[in-house]
Structure formats: C-alpha cells, structure tokens
Amino acid sequence: MAAISGRYVAMNKRGVFGVPEFLTKTGNTLADGKPIKQQPKQLHEFRIKGHTVMAYSRKDAIKKLKAKGLI
Q: The whole model's pTM is what?
C-alpha cells in the first residue's frame, strides 16, 4: 500500500503526461484571456481556362470552379 501511495505522489509532482508543470506551455491561448489576433485572408483574382474567380489560392479557385461545374 505504501508503494502505491508513493507512486501517486510522484505522479502528481510530474504534472500532466509526466512533464513537470513549469515546462508546459500556457502562453498565447484563449485561457489566458488574450485571444490571438489573426489577419483576414485576402482574396486574389485568378483566371483559369477563361474563367475569372476570386479566391484565396489557385487551388481554392479550381475547387470553386469545379463546384460550379465550369471545369
């Protein structure tokens, strides 16, 4: 019984997943009360097979054209 309680105390000192609590990263999270500011993505104009599409990337533009049935 003493061996089990000794192991339990050692596990509590190690913290989450066996890593000491002072080594776990807690910065830049929503739990800190400071949400991370993100820049909005900018749409670009792409011309694919004669069709002009506003999208975030060329890959996204191709996906939009396929969804519309133009490709």
A: 0.48
